[in-house]
Design a protein that fits this description.
The chain has helices spanning 2-15, 30-35, 41-51, 69-79, 94-102, 109-125, 149-165, 173-184, 203-217, and strands spanning 22-28, 57-63, 87-91, 129-133, 169-171. It is of the alpha/beta class. The chain is built from 9 helices and 5 strands. Helix content is 51%, strand content 12%. It has a 5-stranded parallel sheet with strand order 2-1-3-4-5, with helices on both faces. The chain has one domain: Rossmann fold (3-Layer(aba) Sandwich). α3 (41-51) packs across α9, α4 runs parallel beside α6 (109-125) and α6 (109-125) runs parallel beside α7.
Length: 220
């Protein structure tokens, strides 16, 4: 009887799949900082996973308002690597472009690429799965007449190139937002479709980002 019971327990245990919860960190600026608050894209992702009964992921926000690419590099040891993440989303670039005109303190393209590359390499050295996100919008006009559209397109292409070079995942928010705006912004409005203020996400924008990031997260 004892032997039979032990065999039964061993059979049950051997049939169970033990999976480590993966820590997923979202590394970015004020958009990501807001994303970790109620209604934000990180919280929407958590809700979607809970509805699926998926407890394989622990989602953590690591966004700080005003951050640019070199700010991320300077704080990545304390705010990201110290948490031993399995997956890191990097969502940065808006302030690197925006602050050029608003404060005169943006990031030149070559420096943006170098700091971004250094961040990727530090994460890959720790065997972290890296997913890059292109910066979405600074203004929602669909005809590329927003003031920073030229730089936004150029910096987004840098991110795409880095994702391809280093075999990282990619959430191309720049392209995703533009495609959405073409269908949903017939009045060519500067804000109010996916953003509150041309940059920061409204509820629809947060949902769109959450859906697309979750698709990429679960694709592997």
């Amino acid at each position: 009887m004892v032997i039979t019971s032990l065999l039964t327990i061993m059979t049950i245990v051997s049939s169970m799949t033990f999976r480590k919860t993966q820590k997923v960190i979202f590394f970015g600026d004020s958009i990501t900082q807001a994303g970790a608050k109620p209604g934000g894209y990180i919280m929407k992702m958590k809700d979607a996973l809970a509805k699926k009964g998926n407890s394989d992921y622990d989602l953590v926000g690591a966004g700080i308002g005003g951050n640019k690419i070199y700010d991320l590099y300077l704080r990545m040891d304390d705010d990201v690597l110290s948490q031993n993440p399995d997956v890191v989303f990097i969502y940065i670039g808006v302030n690197d472009v925006w602050h050029k005109t608003s404060f005169g303190t943006g990031t030149d393209p070559d420096k943006f690429e170098k700091f971004y590359t250094a961040i990727i390499n530090k994460l890959l050295d720790k065997h972290v799965r890296v997913i890059l996100c292109t910066p979405a919008v600074i203004g929602e006009k669909t005809d590329f007449t927003n003031q920073q559209d030229g730089d936004m397109n150029a910096y987004s292409q840098i991110v795409r190139n880095l994702a391809q070079k280093w075999h990282c995942g990619l959430v191309d928010l720049r392209e995703i937002f533009h495609t959405y705006e073409l269908s949903n912004n017939p009045g060519n409005k500067e804000s109010g479709i996916l953003t509150l203020d041309r940059v920061h996400l409204n509820d629809v924008g947060n949902q769109l980002v959450a859906d697309k990031m979750l698709d990429v997260l679960l694709s592997k």
